[in-house]
Please model this.
Amino acid sequence: MAKIKIKTKKKFFHPSLLIALVIILVLFLGFIFLRKYQKDNFQKKILPLAVKKVINNDKTQFTIGEIKEISGVYEFNLTVNNQKYISYISKDGKILFPSAVKLYAEKNNSPTAQTQGNQTKKLTCNDLTKTKNPNLTAYVVSQCPYGLQMQRVFKAVINEQPELEKYLSIKYIGGVENGKITSMHGDAEAQENLRQICIREEQKNLYWSYLSCYMQAGKSDECLANTGVNTSLLNSCITDKNKGLKYAQADFDSGKKFNVGGSPTLLLNDKQIVSEFDFGGRVANTIKDIVCCGSQTKEDFCQKEISKNELATSFSAVDESGGNTNQNAACGN
Model:
């Protein structure tokens, strides 16, 4: 009688494979846990120390919100004096960027994003508020590259059309805590803001001379001496709470009324936030056009075209830029 051979299936799932899968899973979970631990540690310990070092004022209150990795750095939400900013820091915690320019917009095809984009209307001259005596105010901080650029643009307007000076003003963004002025980029900037405010208020004829010098390299002491600012009068303003801090608080209150957080921000006729990029960019001719659009009557200078040259950002020994600086960029939000 012939023997019948019964074939049995080989076991496909080998015990060693199970062990390997368990090891991979453990390593993966360990990696995720480590990344989360490192991020939490960074957010709770390293980042606050970095922000404190930049603010340089132990009495200034700040909060750090959501943090995420983006383009090789951490992006985080920072709130200082009830003003919100989006800032960046290197992963080793050694370099903090109070603001940044995104060269490529992030794509977002969600319905919400599309709706918001459709609601953003580019303003025209007809959309701007009109008044008999127009005023265009630029809100800035003194160490912001783009705030400096806007101040440089205002200076160019005044140089080309001096009659426009009475329609232009510079105000500053910041806060006052426990009798001390604060600013988004720290104490040095806050003190420079106060210095410029005091010169603007009490030595008005020297404001643009001082600013023209300061914008070259940020050397305050040299510029005070070179432009003839009365330092005794200036120091009295800075130290007298009924002068310097009072002037500064008026600026800050005005900005907060319109939720101004970015340097620079333009406010027309104390009523309407306006983007210079709706009217040609951050150049002198645009500023002239916005003033004219905000006026009920057209002055002679409205018929004259002035400079459309791009001007330098940050500190610069020359006003005009050799590159593409006409970008919709600002410090803060």
